[in-house]
Amino acid sequence: MTSLKSNDEIRDSVRTAYAAVVETASGCCGPDAAASAGAGTSCCPTPDSGAPTDGRVLGYGEDELAAVPEGSNLGLGCGNPTAIAELSEGETVLDLGSGAGFDCFLAAPKVGPSGRVIGVDMTPEMLQKARANIQKSGAENVEFRLGEIEHLPLADATVDVIISNCVINLAPDKNAVFRDAYRVLRPGGRMCISDIVATEELPAEMKNDMGMVSSCIGGAAPIDALVDGLRAAGFDAPEIDVKEESRKFIADWAPGRGIEGYIASATIRAVKR
User: What are the domain boundaries of the chain?
Assistant: First the structure.
């Protein structure tokens, strides 16, 4: 177990783990990738676990899985944010922690040629893969930018909808994420995300294990803390809906560790006043 000393240390660990996803093409934070960050856990179902890795367990339909370019679905999520975002023609969508672009490519046809989809990710290797996937998809309304989700490379009030899939739990300063999300949203804009939340107090060994943090487990925040952070940022009436059924696939992320008793996937919605 490694003690976390700084926010930069957390970001470096996460960046290393997700760069390894691209390099190993494991389809997850997986044993190889997480090992490079100091643990043998994984951040989503892997072929070794016997759990589905094609996205159906997360709520994606067969048509959605078939519509995206090959190599964009790395199996890194914990839900389907595009299913709850109710995207409309002409909207500008921002994906926090966009990875190889899976959810961005699903959002692109929903907003149409007059809309725009922007993915932000802090891992250069992911960004390179996502941009290559644009060429495969032919999508002309999608772009990817390098940046941290606490410090978004976007101007104020330029986004209609923010989506994210199992990423904010990885951020060491979640309140900063919410503040910057609020900044870039237009008035009336909304945030519709899927993420991991803590439903019970995480043991110290999980919180302080760098591999657990990089694997979407150790950094999960309590629901009350997330609601407070959203409200403090200025969001109106934040709602967090815990998906109890998610505990079944979450158990496969670290078999035998009992993590499903502490965390679950949830949908998080909030609106900018």
Answer: 58-209+219-272
